[in-house]
Amino acid sequence: MTQTGDPGSGAGVALGVDVGGTKVFGVALDPDNEILAEVRVPTPVPTPGASSGRSVAIAVAEVVARLEATLDRALRAAHAPIGVGVPGMMDRDGRLRFSPNLPQGHGVDWRVLLSEQLAGREILIENDANLAALAEHELGAAQGYDQVLMATLGTGIGGGVIVDGRVVVGGSGFAGEIGHMVVDPAGPPCPCGRRGCWERYASGGGLGLAAREAALAGQLGDVVAAAGGDPERVRGEDVSAAALAGDAGAAAVVEQVGWWVGFGLANLVGVLDPECIVLGGGLLAAASLWLDAARNSFSALVEGGSNRALAPIVAAHFGEGAGAVGAALAARRGAIW
Amino acid sequence: MTQTGDPGSGAGVALGVDVGGTKVFGVALDPDNEILAEVRVPTPVPTPGASSGRSVAIAVAEVVARLEATLDRALRAAHAPIGVGVPGMMDRDGRLRFSPNLPQGHGVDWRVLLSEQLAGREILIENDANLAALAEHELGAAQGYDQVLMATLGTGIGGGVIVDGRVVVGGSGFAGEIGHMVVDPAGPPCPCGRRGCWERYASGGGLGLAAREAALAGQLGDVVAAAGGDPERVRGEDVSAAALAGDAGAAAVVEQVGWWVGFGLANLVGVLDPECIVLGGGLLAAASLWLDAARNSFSALVEGGSNRALAPIVAAHFGEGAGAVGAALAARRGAIW
Questions:
Q1: What is the ipTM of this complex?
Q2: Tell me, what's the pLDDT at A7?
Q3: Interchain pair B161, A307: CB under 8 A
Q4: Domain spanning B143-316: which CATH class is it, in words?
Q5: Smallest CA–CA separation between B54 and chain A, in Å?
Q6: Helical residues (DSSP H) of A25-127, grouped into ranges
Q7: Fold of A3-135+321-333
Q8: Overall pTM > 0.80
């Protein structure tokens, strides 16, 4: 987390922007934390060999400009504080130390890049899932709970941990990197460089991987045909759509992803014992297909499951927007706490 | 955590007792937190079919009596507060909800049982590894760090997590059950009922398992011969002793356990990002054989390892006594905080 520029009007409008692997999503929050406006643009694709992240910073500035264009002149003149969420290991100085799912951001000093694009503005930079946890705790599905685990199931898996009502950032700001908990040392390779990370099984990316495996194994004939006959071109969304339309093989693939979601949550509950688990991210769009499977594997696998109160597993109130809402909240107060 | 009985003299002597899978170990701390006395007795073996835990409570009372016998009359009369650490999922009312490595304690209401044996005394009951973390943070190897992970590598693996200087207990008191993080869903069965828990690989019990596997695979000829020729009778201690004496096959088995220690710590550091990792428990007695291997696998496997400061991995200052020291500290203040 870091701040630059002049303080804005803390009690006024706040802007939050969440940089994801596929889209940059922004919200404007009014002083009562109602969402005034939403804007989304595609995340610029990485340039081979380059890791400047400048194109991403330009996209963030575009989202900010489009959000502000929706505000009336007085609010625009007040220079709303801006929060920006980025996936991966964000240090306390605004440098993204490691980001398997945003390779164009690797090593980038976001404080510098964003200051170039948004000169003079107050900018707070944080890990995206930490911000999502903040939003759900303050305003969303985890209100009233002081011990919370948030998992954002998107391209990868992000995590936010709340202990005693505060987001845990850890010694260097890197806490909550739950997606890279290895759950099988012999599992599939992960962009992080290791094998068998939880996010290879239980994210949107994991669904795509499982879909292609099932397609190559000949279990998704109709889905493969619809994708043009090439099993390698089957995407997670294709399998979700087929499952929704009643394809049993596709439904089995999505439920297996749900099993892995519950499996990883059981591991994390053993470590953290939260009172509430909130799930966000793009995979939630297909939650009707896998959330029951996740709850079932969670309750079967969590240590001492029959001798403890099971934390409820709920969908993020803000859905895919949780990170952006949390970014705006944190920007307004000048910190994630 | 729970308390019963009359408050003792908070500023005087405090007693701490750690109930382990193999021994019950107690310490008396003077007002300056110096250890006045230590007592250990074997943990009573479980009676088949019974889970009363009364025999364990009697052993705790015996340890308390023997500790007090070392005190002079005035201190004895002051009724030192007593802290008791127990492995497993201890709820906030003193009931042990689940304890794979203390089956004789499963479901036991320790508040009732200990009050029977130590009538009228102030007793605080907590998870043993949470208490060990407290001791190392306040007085031991983790002094000066506010974000700490403690792992006790004994019969199983216990965990204590410190965030912002406080022990994390979670919503129900069950936080820190790191040993049952599943690291391979197809791994060996665990007493907790699942497969592939981290403690099956990286604890004293895990060393025994690895030793017998290697012995059955014919890799530990001399060790098997020394154990009477039966590979099933090879114990972890036999392999450690052989490795210390220069047996390369035995050394490889112990180093493999070290690899798993580092592997699991890497997973947990991703979640928690501690500034310091403290290792305790009986496996530390052989640390010279495996600690380097653990540090190596940790630094190779932790996410973004080359882009972050690596938390130091250090041995508990109080060794196997950390839980008992923490129990005494918590008893004196009346809470783990």
A1: 0.93
A2: 42
A3: no
A4: alpha beta
A5: 21
A6: 54-69, 73-77, 110-117
A7: Nucleotidyltransferase; domain 5 (3.30.420)
A8: yes
